[in-house]
Amino acid sequence: RNITMATEVVRDSSNRVIGYIDDMGDRVLAKGQNGVVIGNYDKILNRTLDASSNIVGNGNLLSALIYNQR
C-alpha cells in the first residue's frame, strides 16, 4: 500500500489497522482496511457522505464511519 503524507492510518484499541483517511484537497476519503472507499467528507459543504452518497451528517465524521463499519 502506497501511503502519502496526506494519509492517516486509523487503528483500533488493539493497535490493529482498521482504515485510512486520505486528504485529497477539497474532499477527504475514508477507506476500510481493505482500501475500499466507505465514505467521504466535502470540506466546502462541511458534509460527510457514505459510500452510497447518503448524508451521514455535518462536519467530518469519517472516523466514526471507519469505526462503525465493523
Spell out the key features of this protein.
70 residues, 1 helix, mainly beta
Strand content: over 45%
Which class best fits the helix and strand makeup? mainly beta
Dominant shape: globular
State the share of residues found in helices, binned by percent.
Answer: 10-25%
Give the count of helical stretches: 1
* Euclidean distance between termini CA atoms: 21 Å
Q: Any idea what the radius of gyration is?
A: 11 Å
DSSP summary, beta strand count: 6
Question: Main sheet, how many strands, which sense, barrel?
Answer: 6 strands, antiparallel
Order of helices and strands: EEEEEEH
| Low-confidence runs | none
State the strand order across the main sheet.
1-2-3-4-5-6
| Average pLDDT for all residues | 92
Provide a descriptive summary of the structure in words.
The longest helix has 7 residues, at 62-68. The chain has 70 residues and is mainly β. The mean pLDDT is 92. Helix content is 10%, strand content 46%. A six-stranded antiparallel β-sheet has the order 1-2-3-4-5-6, with helices on one face.
